[in-house]
Amino acid sequence: MGETVTGGCACGAARYEVEIEDRDAYLCHCRMCQRASGNISLAMKNVLKNKLDWRSGPDWYESSPIARRPYCAKCGTSLGFAFNEGDYMDITIATLDAPEGFTPTHHFGTEHLHEAWLDTSALPRKKTTDYQPLVDRWMDATGSLPE
Asked: What are the b/e assignments for 61-84, b being 16+ CB within 10 Å?
C-alpha cells in the first residue's frame, strides 16, 4: 500500500487524490510539455490511472494524436499528461498540495533541454516577501500575504 497525496489547480476548480508508491519524479523537457506549460520543463510524477481520483474537473484537450492533457479551463493550470493508451499517466508536481519531498530522478525529452536553466544555484535569490511592491499589493487587496 502506498501513500495518498492530494492536489489541484490554482483556483481550486480541479482537485484530485492519488495513491503513489514512491516520491520519485522527473523533469520533462519535450516541446509539447514546454508549450503546454509555457515553461522550459515540467516536473512530473508518473502514477497509475486507476489510483487517481479526480474529485472535481479537470477539463481535457488532445495535445497530439497519441495523448491528451488535463487542465483547468477556469484558471489554465496544466495538471498532467496521459497517453491515450496505457495504465499510467503523469501529474504535474507543482499541482500537489505538498510538493516538497518529491525528488527528480531523471530528465526526459532532453533533445529540447535548455542547459543554462539546469543549475541556477549561483544566481541571487529573493523571497517574495522581500519585494515590497508585491507585499503592498497583496496587503492592500487582501489584508494578508499569500502562501
From this structure: eebeeeebbbbbeeeebbbbbbee
Cα(38)–Cα(10) distance, integer angstroms: 15
Find the domain containing 90 and state its range: 3-142
The whole-model pTM stands at 0.88
Mind listing the pLDDT tens digit for each residue in 11-48? 999 999 999 999 999 999 999 999 999 999 999 999 99
Number of domains in the chain: 1
* CATH number of domain containing 39: 2.170.150.70
Chain centre to alpha carbon of residue 141: 27
